[in-house]
Design brief:
Order of helices and strands: HHEEHEEEEE
Number of strands: 7
Largest sheet: 4 strands, antiparallel
Structural class: alpha+beta
Number of helices: 3
Helix content: 25-40%
Strand order of the largest sheet: 2-1-6-7
Low-confidence stretches: 1-7, 35-49
Distance between the termini: 87 Å
Length: about 200
């Protein structure tokens, strides 16, 4: 009889220990799950902050329209130049229009970033200058200013895609009976400069 009572008490104690261990473990699991979800939400909310070009009233056009300021298609989703005539037209354009004297030692990279809106208009141009070691430098102003002004004059950008990207806001249109989706997107042109002359244009 005493053995039965002892065994019964041990079983009850074991059950209590099981529950005491179970609930902290459950709370820990829930805490880690919620933390993971919140981290993912925080990442999604902040993803467009990387590489954004915020409006600057001193340099940018206040009438430049965007579908959603906080939801602009990044350039890695565009892949190259979305433009009539493709990259060939852009290269030919700069080869014809860009004029600069040879400047020995003016070497490196000039990148011009900007936004193409859903209407095919451009604005919010930003210029970044680096040497061949990717250190920040300043090129002669006539080079950067000429490249910037020529970039601003490029037109006939394409803003419609045949497919919809659910994470990005767009405007749906019909084109010859087919659905098209208009987006705002980031674009860049990178110029490799050697002795003041354009050597390569990317992407």
């Amino acid at each position: 009889m005493m053995a039965f009572i002892f065994s019964n008490r041990m079983i009850k104690k074991g059950i209590n220990m099981k529950y005491n261990l179970k609930y902290p473990t459950l709370f820990l699991f829930l805490f880690l799950s919620i933390s993971s979800i919140m981290a993912q939400v925080d990442y999604i909310e902040k993803r467009n902050n990387v590489g954004d070009i915020p409006f600057n009233p001193d340099t940018d056009d206040s009438s430049f329209e965007l579908i959603d300021e906080n939801n602009i298609l990044p350039y890695n989703m565009v892949c190259g130049f979305l433009i009539e005539g493709e990259k060939y037209r852009v290269v030919d354009y700069f080869n014809e229009k860009f004029k600069s004297d040879t400047i020995i030692g003016a070497n490196g990279y000039i990148t011009i970033r900007f936004i193409v809106n859903y209407k095919g208009k451009t604005d919010r141009f930003r210029v970044y200058e680096m040497d061949n070691e990717y250190r920040q430098i300043k090129f002669p102003e006539n080079i950067t200013q000429s490249l910037l002004e020529l970039t601003k004059k490029i037109d006939r950008w394409i803003t419609s895609l045949d497919y919809k990207l659910d994470r990005y806001n767009c405007i749906e249109i019909m084109d010859n009976g087919n659905k098209k989706y208009l987006y705002d997107y980031y674009q860049y042109i990178l110029f490799k400069i050697k002795d003041g002359q354009i050597e390569t244009i990317l992407p």
